[in-house]
Amino acid sequence: MEILAYGVQADEKPLIEKAFADLRMSVRCLDVFLDADTAAIAAGHQVISTSVNAQLDAEVLRPLAAGGTRMIAQRSTGFNNIDLDVAGRLGLTVARVSYYSPYSVAEFAWTLAMAVNRRIVRAANRTRDFDFRLDGLMGRDMRGRTAGVIGTGKIGEAFTRIAHGFGMRLLGLDVAPNPVCLELGMEYVDKDELLAAADLVTLHVPLLPATRHLIGARELRAMKDDAILVNSSRGGLIDSDALVGELRKGRFAGVGLDVYEAEAGLFFLDRSMEAVDDDTLARLMTFPNVLVTSHQAYYTVEAVAQIVDTTARNIKDHLEGRRSENVLVPAAPAL
User: Fold this and answer.
1) Ranges for the D-isomer specific 2-hydroxyacid dehydrogenase catalytic domain (predicted)?
2) How far is CA 104 from the centre of its chain?
3) 105, 148, 167, 285: which could form a disulfide with 194 (CB 3.0–4.6 Å)?
């Protein structure tokens, strides 16, 4: 039986092929993403694998089920892009990757923070033109400043360890304190206190109805004018239009975004020869203190290898009748 994998990046393909070969399974890799137009390709494939930017709503899930698909194995931890209720009604098993290297995302969040703090992109663009002036490149020491970590799970903990190494004061926000973060000296406070005090705010929470626009107009106004804001989690955590409004006022020392709330159909694709009609994203790109990257925080050899290995095991478990903690929607009879 052949497994169909959608949205496979060139760097990812050999890792996927090896993971499936090790488990003696056949896989066909596609560089196109799963959507309503490409769902028909899956006809006759009992199992498919998707990337995080596939939008698996009823319009996509129904033709998959009608074509014989019975399992969707997503290559990510987040699953806010999947309508699990519809999947369950259609008899589709859905699995995700519950865990992969938290260091990949935490280290990249710090990469964004330091890049905007030390004006790395502006400096690199200048020196390519042999312009070696320092005007406008002054950053700030992180030592002695305050890091506000919203979400102190595995990734937030890894970020906190690095912040502790910088010698920063640590503030945290989560439903329950992380004992490791407490040992590192983190003080848990409410959101308003964290935003008002933090020189660096970083987001490491999942996108749920309760966390959508967790950082909205009110929260942005509560932050310091010279704060740094980093989001390497999910784009919908920040109200992008409100962020543009605050940036237009000249606020924030820097903003690093690896995710964007309307990234589907843009990120992971080459749109350089097309007109992009997303005015909010286009406006974000114009601010010299904003750095936008393409949802690449997870993209290390170690993390991707863990993701594809777990995905292959999820599929093997499904085919052999086992259920793991990675299953979001268990097998059910199709309607």
Assistant:
1) 8-328
2) 11
3) 148
CB–CB of 273/310 below 8 Å?
no
Catalytic machinery residues: 234, 263, 295
Helix, strand, or coil (residue 102): helix
pLDDT in tens, 97-146: 998 999 999 999 999 999 999 999 999 999 999 999 999 999 999 999 99
Which element (helix H / strand E) includes 159?
A: helix 154-166
Q: Are residues 202 and 130 in the same domain?
A: yes
Residue 285 main-chain phi, psi, to 5 deg: -65, -20
Closest by CA position to 268, among listed 56, 4, 10: 10
Residue-by-residue DSSP string for 217-254? HHHHHHS-TT-EEEE-S-GGGB-HHHHHHHHHTT--SE
* Most distant CA atoms of the chain, gap in Å: 67
In a domain, 92, yes or no: yes
The H or E element that residue 281 is part of is helix 279-286
Same domain, 170 and 71: no
Residue 107 parent element (H or E): helix 102-117
Q: Do 38 and 23 share a domain, yes or no?
A: yes
DSSP string of 19-50? HHHHTT-EEEE-SSPPSTTTGGGGTT-SEEEE
Q: How many domains does the chain have?
A: 2
My answer on whether 148 and 236 are in the same domain is yes
